[in-house]
Amino acid sequence: MGRILHFGLGSFARAHLADYTQDAGGWTITGVSLRSAAIRDGLAAQNYCYDLAVQGQGTKRITAVRDVLVAAENPKAVLQAVADPKIQIISATVTEKGYCLDAHGHLDVSNPQIASDVQGVGPQTFIGYLTRGLARRNSPVTVLSCDNLQGNGDVLARCVAQFAQAAGVVVNFAQTSFPNAMVDRITPATTDALRNMGDPMVVPTEPFREWVIEDRFAASRPNWPDVQIVPDVAPHEMRKLRMLNGAHSYLAYAGLLAGYVYVHEAIADTELRRQVEQLMAQAAETLPPDAQAGTTRYAKALLARFDNPHLAHALAQIAMDGSQKLPHRLVAPLRARGRPGAAGAGIKAWVDYCSGVQGDVDDPQVHAIRTALQNDDPLGAMLGLIGAEDLRHLIREQ
User: In the chain, count of helices (H) and strands (E)?
Assistant: First the structure.
């Protein structure tokens, strides 16, 4: 039986990785929570099983998860698990902020937690645990990012290499692979009403799911059904990041500014829908030729998913961590297209949203955002946080 070690066993991982892995059979998952014991405690109380509530299809009992480690309680156990030769895949859904990147996509060695991990105090971060654990490892392993980052495997490999160099540790990259991957399944926050139906650890999700992985495994893998194993993930992930995730981010900020709460409410607004349709069409223009086929059909399918009132996908959930998400979702297509458009409007909506929030925004760069908004040129300062200072001329300020 194969084993997967997964960092960040939140709702998305339990609706995506765990669902696919259960369907494959013969593999189990050990989760890792860096700080909170809540998921471990909740799952342990029901033998690590939970219901997946698939909209329109009923519930499915997931039994692939067998344990959850809490790093804050037992860091040695996590490091030992990363180094364990019985673990053949180390996967992660830690969100963009979990990679501790700077505005240009490199490991931010000035990040206080990364700096502390480099000095050997801790670890505290996903990158710290992963790198120091890999440095202890003497067997092949696949490190599989399941986060919404373009070139996520390449980004993760670069972070590990930069951390290893800074910390003076050696990782055997010859036996460690970092395939790129694209994941997709809308997983809204679980409501109290759903929890009260019987399973407090239930995860709601949509019927649609997709997973495309680069064919670059260093060790064995599950026979995941319906997963596409391909030579190059880039066309798939770029289409998804720029068309789906970019539209989601635009809707989150523009929708919240307009007073909406959920995606299906915001997309029903005639003007916001027009902007989203425009954003998708403009994003499609920036894709490589082999990814442009079928983008009109793909956009229509996305709109149908956004229209679904049963998912109750909160805009505030999507709006979190904007400084980490926007470089890939909106900045990249705006730069590639080189003309004003809906992506620029989405970036401006993010700035307006941040400036109008009562209290602090939910973002790892919250202090830098606060400082930028107090700058004599707040728009310019905010663009600097997402690596878009050179695109000022493409963003309308009105």
Answer: 20, 12
Residue 320 has pLDDT above 80, yes or no: yes
The helix, strand and coil proportions of the chain, stated in percent and rounded to the nearest 5, come to: 50, 15, 35
Domains of the chain: 2-232 (3.40.50.720), 235-394 (1.10.1040.10)
Instruction: Please report, for residues 92, 244, 282, 388, the alpha-carbon distance to residue 185 in angstroms, rounded to integers and kept in the order given.
Output: 15, 11, 23, 28
Q: Single out the residue of 126, 133, 137, 212 nearest to residue 174, CA to CA.
A: 137
Cα separation, 314 vs 262, whole angstroms? 4
Q: Is pLDDT at 397 greater than 70 in this prediction?
A: no
pTM above 0.90, yes or no: no
What mean pLDDT is reported for the chain?
95
- What integer pLDDT is reported at residue 272 of this predicted model? 98
Q: According to DSSP H, which parts of 231-311 are helical? A: 234-239, 246-257, 263-267, 270-285, 289-292, 295-307
Q: Rounded CA gap, 129 and 32, in Å? A: 10
Q: Could you give the CA distance from residue 388 to residue 279 in angstroms, rounded to a whole number?
A: 18
Q: Residue type at 60? A: K
pLDDT exceeding 70 applies to what percent of the chain? 99
CA 7 centroid distance within chain: 12
